[in-house]
Every structure is written in C-alpha cells, then in structure tokens.
C-alpha cells in the first residue's frame, strides 16, 4: 500500500454549493522559497506503450478527431490525430494529491470542444487519504482548474469500467452531472464545473457492493451512480436538456429518468432486474436507449449478462442479447453506436477471459448479431479480424497457447468500446493492457471480409513501477513492473520485444544485478503457480526460474552479491534466505526478521544489508547471519528504501520515514554501523546513483524528496551538500516513491518510478558543467542566453507552448526574467513554472522561487497556453535583462 501524507481538504460551502478550490499546480501561485537550485530537464517515457487497464474512451461529438482516454491509476490522455499518439494531461498532479492520477470519468464538451472535464480520485477507502475532485480545462487539458469534492472517488475501485459517470449537457454546457460512489448520490454543476451540489431529488444512491464483508472497504464499497446519458433530442441550444437517463448500481432499480431537466426522477418502468447496467448509450435517430448488463460490477468478474433496447417513445423493452442467457458465462459492458449509420450497435463480452473476449456487431438495431470470432469445429475458430501487434510485440506475452486460445488475444476487461462518431471505419477499445483499434471496421459487414486490429496506444504509458536498475554495461535500463512483470530496455525510445519470461511474473517486486558482473541479474515476483525468483546470466535477456523455499507466497525483495556468486532473498510468507549459486537450494538467514528489505554491498561480495522496523542489519558472511547495527534515529516504520554506492565499500544511503516520526535521508560510510541524517532534507523516499558530474569526486545522487519546502526530484553532485530540483510543477507524476536510479553511463540522466505513468527518464538540457549552482552574485542574467520556443499543441483559437531559457554565460543566475513580443494578436492566458505580466505588446516571464538559480550551461523551462487568431507566428526576439538571447533552431 502506498504511503503518503494526509491531504487536508478545505471545503467552502455557500448557498448549498461546493465552492471551487485554488487551481492545480499548473495554475497555482509561487511555491515556497526553496534553498535549492533548479535545472531544466527534458522528460520522456522509456517506451512500453500501454501496460494497464483503459476503462474509458470518449470522442467529442462535434469536432472530428478529438478524443480522450482515461486510465484507472495513470491519468488521462488526449488523442493527437497527426501522429496517432496520446498526450498525457495530468502529469502536473503532485505528491500530496497522488490519488488524482486515478480517473473515474472524462467528459468532452460538445458545445465548446476546448472544454474537457475529469473526475479524479483513486480509492474510496482509506488507502487514499484525499477526497476526489473535478478538474476542468478550457484548453483541452493543457492546463486545469480544480474543485475538491466532499467525498472520495474511485478510479481504481471495483466497477470502474462502468460509465461515463461525468457528463456535459449537450445544449447547456454549463450544466454537468456526476455520479458519486459510496452512497453520495447524483451531483450537478450549473457553472461549468466550478461548484457542485447534490441533486437531492434523485431517489437512489445505489446499494451494490462487490463483497459487503470486505473489511478493507475496497470490495465492500457501494458502487453508486454509474453513468449519465442525455437525450439531445429533448432540448435546444442554450437551454438544459429535458430528458436525462442515469444508471445506478442496484440490481432491482438500475435505470432512472428525468423529463424535466433533473427536477424530478422516476425509475424506468418495466426494466429488467437481477443485473447491473454497465452502460447506457442512446441512438437518438431511432429513439433507442441501449443498455449493457452484467451480474456484477467488473472489471474482472461477471458470469452472466444481457443486452436490452429501450424504445424512448413507447417505453417498450426488448431483449436483444446475442446469446441465450444460459449460454453466457460473461457480462456485457463495452457498448457503442455508429453515429454515421444509425441502427449499428456494438457490444463486448468484457469478462470473457477464456478463451478470449468477444465483440458483437449488429446493423439492425440489435435484431441480429455477428461475432468477431466463431468456432468452426471446436477447438478451431475463425476470426473476422486480423491482428498485428508488431508495434507492441510483448502483447503476445511470449505465449504458445492451445486452441481455442490464441495469441495475441482479442482482449480482456474490454469495457471501453467506441466507434468514432465521424468515421464508421474507426473503432477503439480498451483492454487490461492496451488500446486496440481499427480503421476499416466496416469490412466486418462484407461477406468473408476481415477488419484489421492493431494497438493504438503509443504515448499512453500505464505501468506501475516497483523497482529500477541501470547496470554499468549491457542494457541501460531494467524495470520491475506490476501486472506485466518488467522489461529489459536496450533502447529507451523503442518498445521492447518481450517482457521477462521463463517465468512470467504477474508482478515483479524487486530486481538486482551483480555490480562487478552485471550480466548476472536476479528478480523476485508474484506468480500463482511456479517459482517466485528467477535468474539471468546475460543481463536479463533470458531467464530461468529458481527454487522456492518452503512457505513463499510472494516476491518480496532480493539482492545479488557484488560478484554474482550468492544471493539474499526476503520473500513474502517466510523469513530471509540466502544461497550460493542460482537458487537451487536456500537456507534461512539468522539474526534478521522476516519481511526485512535486503540489499547488497556493491564492492564486498560477502556483505549484505537489511532493514526492518527502525533497525539496520549487516551480514559479512554472504547472508548466513545478520547482526543488528547500533545505529539509532532511523525511521521506525517500514517505508524505507536504501542502496549501497557502487564502488564504495560500506557506503550506504537510506531514505524514508513518515510525517509523524523521523523522515529524510541518511548516509553511512562505515557499512551501516552509524548513520548521519542529512540536514535540509525534510523528507525523502527513494535514493539512487548516477554517473559523476565532470570534475566531481562523488557519484551523482538522485532522490524523490522534499527539500527546502518543495516536493520534487532532486540531484546532488557533491554527496548531498547541495541539491538541484530537476523536475518542475508540470512534471510531477503523482506518487514517485517506489524507486529511482541514475544512469552510470550518462551524466544527469535519471530514471523515475511512477505509480501508473510508467518509467519516466530525464536528461539535463544543457548537459551541465558538473556542479550544482548555488546563489550567484548577480540578481539577473548579465550576458549570454539562448531561447528555444516550441508550440507543442495548437487548435482553433488556442495553442500551448514551451519555452526553454539557457544560461550560456559563465556566471550563475539568481533570478531571471525574459521578454518578448508576439508578432500577431496572441495573448498568454495561463503560465506555469513562471509568473507573467504584459505591458503593451511585451510579455515578461519571471522566475518563481524554486527555479531562480540557473548555473552556467543549465536551463530553465516554463510553459503557457494562449489565444490567437489569424496566424500564430512565433516571436523572433527574446531579451533577458536587456540582453538579446540567441534562438535555438
């Protein structure tokens, strides 16, 4: 379970409405003054492409090629048609608000396509200490404002594939509805999402829970209001739509309707019972409300299901299920209609795990159906589609299944299914691992025709990262991931061909390599049946399973001796173990408690370290016996990560703690006998090492920490004496407390573990000069500077740009400002990582507190959104403190 500080939510109630809170980090005021410098980094993902559950895809109904995807823990994304990629929209979410990376619903405004909304929050139980929020954007997610809610939302809770729970009125786009979980009912905003109030007239907050006996509050939570659908045929521009349908997690009362714009509500008469309505999609041309039903809330479970059609004019219900109830072993959830071809409807058997999911298609409003695949003579099957996963080859899982299973699979957890409202040939659907799509869907309807499916997921990175390693030779990056195991990245810009196999862990919990022999790698992880530890002798390219000691139930942590001759493993379910060779037999270590975190010294092959409940442990005999260190003052809990310095015998760094006790970063130079707490580090959660800066005598340190009152990713080139923040407020990625490492071959490069946004890596823009800048003598730039101005996104009447300002002089800056004039009528509407003013035609951007210091050769980056008309030409002249800057090509 994640550890995070408690987020204090301040709610201002006025006239029964929840007042809007201050904007999120992108729109917030200056951060507290920090006693650290800043460097400008370029941030990218180590490409995996996908890797997690995509429960929702939303197309805008009035603008072609505008689409959004939501993930359960990894934020929201916008589709970029020109590159067929996804752009992340919630990277600004910070540490204290980490739960807001879970997205329960997305709504795109059909009246004003620049507006988009996201309902965010990860858990409704105490795993997430913060309440949910509604984020609103007037520039397609480039920047956001936030309204905190008086209850939690569950982007990663049971039932998260139902929806959408958030909807914008297609006629009066100041009106939005939000379906809440946990018995909190239906909520409405009449001011474009700024304030919200409960619709007290709505009669049913839901009553279905996956497992009412679950004491954690996870499976026992009432799944609440699950979707909202407007009947746009019952309104006109500027007035609220009269007829609204709402789905409720109640098997006996699943669908309600209002015909007076939400003033009164009634249960739809004659509706089926015994099922939950996962989706409600309206075909206004034919007057049909289609409903996908399952006997459970999903996304994993579901044993029976039905499809129904409700005639809105007559109130007639028709069972249009493509299979008899007795023949279903799955529920229905994915549901869409073709807006270009009324009468065409599609649905998914989302919970058909074996042999594959199923997709159904009807072109006569559900009277008859065809299937994506059929049995010819069991177990042989005939597919109506072809599948090409060469862009994400790991989607085959390296499997060779027996028929009727195939690889790659059509999918599983297929709750998101959408036909492009402007293009009958384009369809996208989400799975538990990716987004698949096609651009020749109508071939389905041709006799003997096939349509082509391929991943449409590039740019959407949704893995939870448990551990990272960057060996001094071989692949630059090895990762331990939840759900899909992990990868050996020989290139950061290409998708690896396969995850770790032989065995395939469902989640890899820990990995390590032998420092002096980096071809030797060990990993530990979770697996339903099979070993929980595996070894490689070729730098992670190929693997073989070890043997579990008795009682092992989970991966835990594992460490490789410096020369690869021995290993120490602390698995779940039993105590710490050690072995020589490759784990054919293990022996119990003594002197160290079960559940301890273990690591190895990077110089002495016989020395291993452990930590548990405030105590540090040391073994000098290869893990056979451990002795508790006399060191005191260390964190009392188990939220601790530590590492030994490569090349430094007995040099150990330890990060961790909690707000109610010791919290920070500690250093030992005597093999853990004593530790010194670093001053000025308020909190730290990870520590890692990278290549030393030029002329530096100590390897570069990296940490996810709070230093000088600022949360961020920090770098030190002088053993922690001074620190530089290398990320900024636009790049925070929620919770980053699992792992961090530098690259031993590339100075400044850092790999950051996120909980849902994959592996992020950053490179210093200017390469740095090997030193961290301290306060300089000059209050403003006094010489050479360079500016790189990049328009990163543009749409009708609006655009987003990034500006990189580089100190190309010889003196450090302690404060900076940059002036320019637009050649047209562009206006800055919002800026982040800098403050801005406008005098006549001149725009001035000034530093905020935390990025005032810029060393020679280093850069600072800020961004903004703006408006334009006519043309959007770039500024040609930039000046810093009166000195003209060169412009980068």
Rough outline = globular
Range of strand content: 35-45%
Instruction: Determine the CATH superfamily of the largest domain.
Output: YVTN repeat-like/Quinoprotein amine dehydrogenase
Number of helical regions: 0
Number of strands: 74
| Helicity, as a percent range | under 10%
Distance between the termini: 46 Å
Task: Provide the domain count.
Answer: 4
Cα gyration radius (Å): 28 Å
CATH T-level fold name of the largest domain: Methylamine Dehydrogenase, Chain H
Structural class assignment: mainly beta
Uncertain segments are: 1-34, 767-782
Write down the CATH class of the largest domain: Mainly Beta
Which architecture of the largest domain per CATH? 7 Propeller
Q: Please summarize the sheet with the most strands.
A: 6 strands, mixed
Describe the secondary structure blueprint for this structure.
Layout (H helix, E strand, L loop, with lengths): L12 E2 L2 E2 L18 E2 L2 E5 L10 E4 L7 E4 L5 E5 L4 E4 L14 E6 L7 E5 L12 E5 L7 E4 L17 E3 L7 E4 L6 E4 L7 E2 L26 E6 L13 E5 L6 E4 L7 E2 L8 E8 L4 E7 L10 E7 L5 E3 L15 E3 L7 E5 L8 E5 L7 E2 L1 E3 L5 E3 L1 E3 L29 E3 L7 E4 L4 E4 L12 E5 L9 E5 L7 E5 L6 E2 L17 E8 L2 E10 L6 E4 L7 E2 L8 E7 L5 E7 L4 E4 L6 E2 L8 E4 L7 E5 L2 E5 L7 E2 L11 E5 L7 E6 L5 E6 L7 E2 L3 E4 L3 E3 L9 E8 L2 E7 L7 E2 L14 E4 L2 E8 L5 E6 L20 E11 L2 E10 L5 E2 L2 E5 L5 E6 L2 E5 L2 E5 L6 E2 L4 E9 L10 E3 L2 E2 L1 E2 L2
Parallel strand pairs: 3-59, 31-35, 63-74
Antiparallel strand pairs: 1-2, 4-62, 5-6, 6-7, 7-8, 9-10, 10-11, 11-12, 13-14, 14-15, 15-16, 17-18, 18-19, 19-20, 21-22, 22-23, 23-24, 25-26, 26-27, 27-28, 29-30, 32-33, 33-34, 34-35, 36-37, 37-38, 39-40, 40-41, 41-42, 43-44, 44-45, 45-46, 47-48, 48-49, 49-50, 51-52, 52-53, 53-54, 55-57, 56-57, ...
């Amino acid at each position: 379970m994640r550890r995070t500080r408690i987020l204090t939510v301040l709610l201002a109630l006025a006239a029964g409405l929840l007042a809007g809170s201050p904007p999120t980090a992108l729109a917030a005021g200056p951060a507290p003054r920090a006693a650290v410098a800043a460097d400008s980094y370029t941030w990218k993902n180590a490409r995996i492409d996908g890797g997690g559950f995509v429960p929702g895809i939303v197309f805008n109904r009035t603008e072609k090629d505008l689409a959004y995807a939501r993930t359960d823990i990894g934020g929201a994304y916008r589709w970029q048609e020109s590159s067929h990629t996804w752009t992340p929209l919630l990277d600004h979410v910070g540490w204290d608000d980490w739960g807001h990376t879970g997205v329960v619903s997305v709504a795109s405004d059909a009246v004003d396509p620049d507006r988009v909304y996201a309902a965010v929050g990860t858990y409704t139980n105490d795993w997430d200490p913060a309440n949910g929020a509604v984020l609103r954007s007037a520039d397609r997610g480039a920047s956001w404002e936030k309204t905190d809610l008086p209850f939690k939302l569950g982007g990663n809770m049971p039932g998260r594939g139902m929806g959408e729970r958030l909807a914008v009125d297609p006629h009066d786009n100041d009106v939005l509805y939000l379906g809440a979980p946990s018995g909190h009912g239906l909520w409405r905003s009449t001011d474009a999402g700024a304030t919200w109030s409960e619709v007290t007239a709505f009669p049913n907050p839901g009553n279905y829970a996956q497992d009412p006996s679950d004491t954690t509050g996870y499976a026992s939570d009432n799944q609440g209001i699950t979707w909202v659908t407007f009947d746009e045929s019952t309104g006109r521009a500027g007035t609220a739509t009269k007829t609204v349908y709402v789905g409720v997690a109640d098997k006996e009362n699943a669908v309600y309707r209002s015909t007076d714009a939400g003033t009164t509500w009634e249960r739809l008469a004659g509706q089926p019972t015994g099922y939950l309505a996962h989706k409600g999609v309206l075909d206004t041309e034919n007057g049909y409300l289609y409903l996908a039903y399952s006997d459970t809330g999903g996304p994993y479970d579901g044993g029976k299901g039905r499809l129904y059609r409700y005639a809105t004019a007559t109130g007639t219900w028709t069972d249009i299920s493509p299979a008899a109830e007795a023949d279903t072993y799955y529920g229905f959830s994915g549901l869409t209609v073709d807006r270009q071809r009324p009468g065409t409807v599609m649905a998914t058997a989302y919970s058909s795990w074996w042999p594959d999911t199923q997709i159904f298609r009807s072109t006569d409003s559900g009277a008859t159906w065809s299937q994506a695949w059929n049995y010819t003579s069991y177990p042989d099957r005939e597919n109506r589609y072809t599948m090409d996963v060469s862009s994400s080859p790991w989607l085959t899982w390296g499997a060779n299944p027996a028929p009727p299973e195939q690889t790659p699979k059509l999918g599983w957890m297929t709750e998101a299914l959408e036909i492009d409202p402007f293009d009958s040939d384009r369809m996208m659907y989400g799975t538990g691992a990716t987004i698949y799509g096609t651009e020749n869907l109508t071939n389905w309807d041709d006799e003997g025709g096939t349509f082509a499916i391929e991943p449409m997921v590039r740019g959407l990175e949704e893995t939870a990262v448990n551990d990272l390693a960057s060996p001094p030779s071989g692949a630059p990056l090895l990762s331990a991931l939840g759900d899909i195991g992990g990868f050996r990245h020989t290139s950061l810009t290409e998708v690896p061909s396969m995850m770790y196999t032989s065995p395939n862990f469902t989640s890899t919990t820990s990995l390590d390599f032998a420092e002096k022999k980096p071809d030797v790698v060990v990993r530990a992880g979770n697996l339903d049946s099979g070993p929980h530890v595996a070894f490689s002798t070729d730098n992670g390219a190929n693997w073989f399973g070890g043997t579990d000691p008795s009682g092992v139930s989970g991966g835990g942590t594992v460490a490789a001796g410096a020369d690869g001759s021995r290993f120490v493993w602390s698995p779940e379910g039993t105590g710490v173990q050690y072995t020589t060779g490759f784990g054919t037999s293990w022996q119990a270590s003594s002197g160290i408690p079960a559940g301890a975190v273990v690591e190895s010294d990077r110089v002495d092959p016989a020395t291993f370290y452990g930590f548990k409940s405030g105590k540090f442990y040391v073994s000098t005999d290869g893990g056979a016996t451990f002795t508790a260190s006399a060191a005191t003052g260390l964190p009392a809990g188990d939220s601790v990560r530590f590492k030994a310095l490569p090349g430094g015998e007995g040099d150990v760094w330890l990060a961790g703690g909690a707000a109610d006790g010791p919290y920070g970063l500690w250093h030992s130079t005597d093999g853990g006998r004593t530790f010194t707490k670093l001053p000025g580090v308020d909190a730290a959660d990870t520590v890692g090492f990278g290549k030393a800066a030029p002329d530096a005598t100590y390897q570069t340190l990296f940490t996810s920490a709070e230093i000088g009152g600022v949360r961020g990713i920090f770098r030190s080139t002088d053993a922690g004496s001074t620190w530089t923040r290398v990320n900024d407020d636009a790049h925070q990625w929620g919770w980053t407390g699992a792992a961090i490492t530098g690259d031993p071959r590339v100075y400044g490069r850092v790999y950051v573990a996120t909980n849902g946004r994959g592996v992020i890596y950053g490179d210093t823009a200017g390469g740095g000069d090997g030193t961290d800048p301290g306060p300089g003598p000059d209050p403003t730039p006094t010489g050479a500077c360079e500016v790189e101005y990049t328009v990163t996104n543009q749409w009708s009447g609006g655009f987003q740009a990034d500006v990189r300002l580089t100190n190309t002089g010889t003196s450090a800056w302690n404060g900076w400002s940059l002036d320019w004039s637009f050649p047209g009528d562009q206006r800055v509407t919002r800026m982040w990582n800098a403050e801005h003013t406008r005098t006549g035609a001149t725009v001035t951007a000034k530093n905020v507190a935390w990025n005032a210091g810029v060393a020679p050769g280093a850069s600072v980056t800020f961004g903004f959104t703006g408006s334009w008309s006519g043309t959007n030409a770039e500024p040609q002249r930039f000046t810093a403190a009166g000195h003209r800057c060169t412009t980068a090509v």
